[in-house]
């Protein structure tokens, strides 16, 4: 798996305070089955996190640390760009330090009360400049997660949709869990990230979420969200956008995937034939 949203660089935002905490996070991720992570530290955020390190230097340090611990574990550069007043000046002032691994993809964050209109405006501004916006943790924006129509409009406008893995395992309540599962089943989601911040709180874990997707959708869908789409993004390739599915399609799909349903229908049919035909 590849985690496209994680605050793993120490001393630059509200992620780990030290290299030791970052090391613990790397160990947790590796043991959880994660083999790559995008270091999406905050950019253009309204809060002052009291940074004690420079992103590039701290990133280089943990990359070296990770290669010694686990040679197959990769850390990629990135950012979580906060969209607020004045952001257009940054967009019009290259070079950019907020894209994901030097690609044209960028992870976007908004205020929790951001409306569809505000997010849509930002998607437009980024796309006309050649960026591919990924909307981070839509589970934080009620005007988005509560409206499938708004989600699909954003995807049609050029945005990708990311949710936080912890929402699928009940960490943010039953309502959020059931809503995110519904959006998954209907094909509205493009990426799932941990939004990990530390080894203690908001842990950088994805395995349980992967299992949930495998169970309620399919193993192939889990691989698409946790492996294939992140890999395509990091290599600069086009990321697959799955078409949304109607209730009827979901019902037929569930019948096809359930041997118990098929067997039950067969038995009932045989019984009816026996009694009605005799």
Automatic annotation (TrEMBL):
Catalysed reactions listed for this entry: O-phospho-L-tyrosyl-[protein] + H2O = L-tyrosyl-[protein] + phosphate
Record-listed E.C. numbers: 3.1.3.48
Residue ranges the record marks as coiled coil: none
Alphabetic keyword roster: Hydrolase, Membrane, Protein phosphatase, Transmembrane, Transmembrane helix
UniProt-listed GO biological process terms: capsule polysaccharide biosynthetic process
Gene3D superfamilies in the record: Metal-dependent hydrolases (3.20.20.140)
Organism superkingdom: Bacteria
Segments traversing the membrane: 257-276
Family annotation (InterPro entries): Caps_polysacc_synth_CpsB/CapC, Metal_Hydrolase
Molecular function GO terms recorded: manganese ion binding; protein tyrosine phosphatase activity
Pfam families the UniProt entry points to: CpsB_CapC
SUPFAM superfamilies: Metallo-dependent hydrolases (SSF51556)
Keyword Signal among record annotations: no
Family, per entry: Belongs to the metallo-dependent hydrolases superfamily. CpsB/CapC family.
PANTHER family named among the record's database cross-references: TYROSINE-PROTEIN PHOSPHATASE YWQE
Protein name: protein-tyrosine-phosphatase
Organism listed in the record: Andreesenia angusta
Gene this chain is encoded by: cpsB
């Amino acid at each position: 798996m590849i985690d496209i949203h994680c605050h793993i660089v120490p001393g630059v935002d509200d992620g780990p305070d030290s290299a030791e905490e970052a090391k613990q996070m790397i160990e947790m991720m590796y043991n959880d089955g994660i083999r790559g992570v995008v270091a999406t530290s905050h950019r253009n955020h309204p809060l002052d996190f009291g940074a004690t390190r420079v992103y590039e230097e701290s990133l280089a340090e943990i990359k070296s640390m990770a290669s010694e611990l686990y040679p197959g574990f990769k850390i990629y550069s990135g950012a979580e760009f906060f969209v607020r007043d004045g952001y257009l000046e940054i967009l019009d002032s290259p070079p950019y330090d907020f894209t994901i691994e030097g690609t044209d993809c960028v992870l976007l964050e908004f205020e929790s009360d951001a409306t569809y209109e505000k997010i849509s405006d930002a998607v437009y501004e980024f796309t006309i400049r050649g960026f591919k916006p990924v909307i981070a943790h839509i589970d934080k924006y009620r005007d988005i997660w509560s409206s499938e129509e708004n989600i699909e409009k954003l995807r049609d406008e050029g945005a990708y949709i990311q949710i936080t893995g912890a929402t699928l395992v009940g960490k943010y309540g039953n309502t959020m869990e059931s809503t995110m599962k519904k959006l998954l089943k209907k094909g509205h989601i493009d990426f799932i990230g941990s939004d990990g911040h530390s080894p203690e709180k908001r842990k950088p874990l994805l395995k349980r979420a992967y299992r949930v997707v495998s169970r309620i959708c399919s193993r192939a869908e889990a691989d698409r969200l946790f492996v294939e789409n992140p890999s395509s993004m990091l290599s600069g390739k086009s990321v697959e956008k799955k078409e949304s599915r109607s209730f009827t399609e979901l019902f037929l799909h569930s019948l096809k995937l359930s041997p118990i349903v098929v067997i039950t229908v067969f038995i009932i049919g045989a019984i009816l034939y026996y009694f009605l035909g005799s």
